[in-house]
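The instructor's notes for this session suggest beginning with a concrete chain rather than abstract definitions. Hand out the sequence below and ask the class to guess, before any prediction is shown, which regions might be ordered.
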Amino acid sequence: MKEPQSNGDAMRINISLAAAFVLLASACNAAGNSQSVPLQGGISNPAEASGQARPDVDHTSILKMLTTTAVIGSTVDPTNGDQNPYGLVYVNAKPFGKSVLKKGDLVVCNFNDQANVQGNGTTVEYMPSTPGSSPTRLIQDPSLKGCASLVINSFGETYSADSGAKDAVGVSAAGKIVQTLKNSKLMIEPWGSVYISSVTSYPPGDGLWVADASTGKILRINLGTGGKPTYTPVISGFAVNHGVPGSILGPSGLQYDPANHGTLYVIDGVNNTVVAIHDPYDNLNTANEVVVGSNGMTFSGPKAADAKVIYHGAPLDGPISSALLPNGNLILGNTLNKNGKNVMVEIASDGTLLAYKNVDKGAAGALFGIVATGTSDATTQIYFNDDNANNIQVLQK
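After discussion, reveal the predicted structure:
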């Protein structure tokens, strides 16, 4: 096993101390008219215990309300021409300390290089979330090769899951690498990711959860509070297709909803399912706590009762990306369609199909990073990467 590199251990202490504020802010931003998936298990999520759980499932379709599309800006790196945007996050608060990022910025990573070779991109860009914006390079580094997904924490640090470099990299809001996470036995093809904040400074601290498209496992990477990160494959068995870059399917589109009993959502692009897992931060600590069955529909392992398929089948068609809406609903982005459509699908937290919409009439497979903003049904907007046009677009009223 390779020794994990940790350039930002000191900052980990500050992040953990601030995590309570992150969790409360996330719960408040997500509060609306929806409720949790009825999963088994006790109430242990701090957001729920403090009264932040939502009272009802929200069956209002946000996707149907958003009828206008606008182009935010190109994602092509202005220096080396990297293209094909994958990961996408929104900066919802002014980052702490020195920062080039501002509240309201979008951060995106490029999967391809200038020659459009899949998985060779090494750049991350940022831009304002207003139509007509232009990209500015945040960072370029070989350790970002094949960035497949991005997450962001309360300090404005973005963490990338990098399929080509076989790592996950934390980049500060000033564009500097603060942490490089590697594990030669467990990080084979990092793909989807989600950041789950702790509510105390006590170890294990904040966690970066990374789905691997080669092994079908989901790693819990405890970032600690000054010590070395730990790597544990707490979930295993998700299907993978062993596709080459550009046609990879596996567990991805990870989302965490602290106001929904601490629910982790995982998108299975091979079996076209959405899996919800109850309170992963507290309940999943050792290897293979949840093992997904071969058909993607059943579960075994010590914490099998905490996992549930909330949706399966059409109109899902090779989904990879997802976004958590303020009301607790999910937006998923398909990548397969024989008719060349790029379909977004909206599913309520109880698994009810609410809507689906083709958002690009070009070649299929253009939808990757998706992120939602807003504080209510009325103010929600959905940003998404369009790989056909190499830009970010927004769905709005």
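Then share the key points. The domain at 9-396 is CATH 2.120.10.30 (Neuraminidase). The chain has one domain: 9-396.
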